[in-house]
Amino acid sequence: MSFELTWIGHATLALKTGGYNLLVDPFLSDNPTAILDPDSVEADYILVSHGHHDHVGDTVKIAQRTGATVISNAEICRWLTQQHIEAHGQHLGGGHTHPFGYLKLTMALHGSALPDGSYGGNPAGFLLTTNDGEKIYMAGDTGLFGDMQLIGEEGVTLAVLPIGDNYTMGPADGLRAVKMLQPDHVIPIHYNTFDLIQQDAAAWARQVRTETTAQVHLLDPGEQFIYP
Ligand code: NI
Ligand code: MN
How far is ligand 1, taken at its centre, from the CA of residue 139, in Å? Predict the structure, then answer.
């Protein structure tokens, strides 16, 4: 068993690996597509990529109920610690061996102001190496950047990329990202939640299949990708 990843909708992921439940960017209460209840979802760890409300989401509420440790950049972790949330701060380029695997924060081209206007440091993506050596790259909210090539050099099993455009990469740059990352598998997210980020994901998947060797998995909210 390596990992099971469920797309909850928007940028929210539920990831099971090494016997731990991870939630990534748990935007549930205000998310029209979310299929999880913040009052019952399980979490051992919560990963927060940046400070925007559609990523911090229900982090505080879920962490208070479950006692989950939140992992994010140092500034967001300080903001959470002030609210008596258990948090582990890291920063861009820094990795740490957690019980569920080795997690490195990667750069992201975006903003990170917190919902109350507090400074949220720099936005991040995540590169997780599972305990059995599979690499999952979750780009977070980002524009295309050339250093995705460097991430690709690590050998990416699964890339989770935004394709909604307007706030993040759109489909064309998402395709260029796949070409740089050369993942075995790719899952698009951060689209169709709102009118501004409507995309034809099926057309994108066809183009990725034509121009790269990556296997594209189009999930509906609530659907899982199980590896292997
Ligand atoms: Ni954002
Ligand atoms: Mn976002």
Answer: 12
